[in-house]
């Protein structure tokens, strides 16, 4: 029974390409090359995006065809095939995320599968003074701040004190605005920073307590730089 189960599991992995899926991640606007594990010179191969045919090369003739109208035309003028049969996508977009499969003429089973994730560029975070609670007793000793970003998805927003994580908030599905509060003392000398990150990039905005934590005059100050 054990031998049968082992052989059956191995067979499924071979048929469905479970062990051959390669994950690739890039930032929107970059180019990405989906490199084949085996060079396919002089062979007829087909590339599909989520089951939709997008490119084909015709073996010894080295001719390539791109189906510009397929997949809602999203890949128009952005696809290339190199001499090995690898697919190059230029000026990537978040809508390019998905599964890419490669077939040759002699098999209906893909010999390479790629899972591509294209992440949006990280926006600049804004640290601002929150004066809405300036009448409270604690506001005389403490300064309430907000780190904010707008129209983001698949990101985490975090406050750090030095290298120690203080708090964080995440959004992975829809495009929304995020804000994360932090309360500090007016005279303290600790180093604080707000960090926004996705699975492949991060961006840091450092807090200047002296600049932001001034007495509230009915308006909020804001810091708009990042490093």
Automatic annotation (TrEMBL):
<protein>
    <submittedName>
        <fullName>Uncharacterized protein LOC113040254</fullName>
    </submittedName>
</protein>
<dbReference type="InterPro" id="IPR007110">
    <property type="entry name" value="Ig-like_dom"/>
</dbReference>
<feature type="signal peptide">
    <location>
        <begin position="1"/>
        <end position="17"/>
    </location>
</feature>
<feature type="domain" description="Ig-like">
    <location>
        <begin position="123"/>
        <end position="210"/>
    </location>
</feature>
<keyword id="KW-0732">Signal</keyword>
<dbReference type="InterPro" id="IPR013783">
    <property type="entry name" value="Ig-like_fold"/>
</dbReference>
<dbReference type="InterPro" id="IPR036179">
    <property type="entry name" value="Ig-like_dom_sf"/>
</dbReference>
């Amino acid at each position: 029974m054990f031998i049968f189960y082992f052989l059956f599991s191995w067979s499924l992995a071979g048929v469905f390409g479970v062990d051959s899926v390669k994950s690739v991640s890039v930032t929107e606007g970059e180019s990405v090359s989906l490199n084949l594990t085996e060079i396919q010179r002089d062979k007829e191969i087909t590339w599909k995006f989520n089951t939709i045919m997008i490119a084909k090369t015709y073996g010894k003739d080295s001719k390539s065809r791109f189906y510009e109208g397929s997949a809602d035309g999203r890949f128009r003028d952005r696809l290339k095939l190199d001499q090995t049969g690898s697919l190059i996508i230029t000026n990537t977009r978040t809508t390019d995320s998905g599964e890419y499969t490669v077939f040759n003429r002699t098999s209906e089973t893909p010999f390479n599968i790629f899972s591509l994730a294209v992440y949006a560029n990280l926006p600049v975070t804004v640290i601002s003074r929150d004066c809405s609670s300036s009448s409270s007793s604690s506001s005389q000793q403490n300064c309430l701040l907000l780190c904010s970003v707008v129209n983001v998805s698949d990101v985490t927003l975090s406050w750090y004190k030095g290298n120690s994580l203080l708090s964080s908030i995440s959004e992975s599905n829809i495009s929304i605005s995020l804000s994360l509060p932090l309360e500090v003392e007016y005279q303290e000398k600790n180093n604080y920073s707000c960090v926004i990150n996705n699975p492949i990039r991060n961006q840091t905005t450092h807090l200047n307590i002296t600049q932001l934590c001034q007495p509230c005059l009915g308006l909020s100050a804001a810091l708009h730089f990042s490093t």
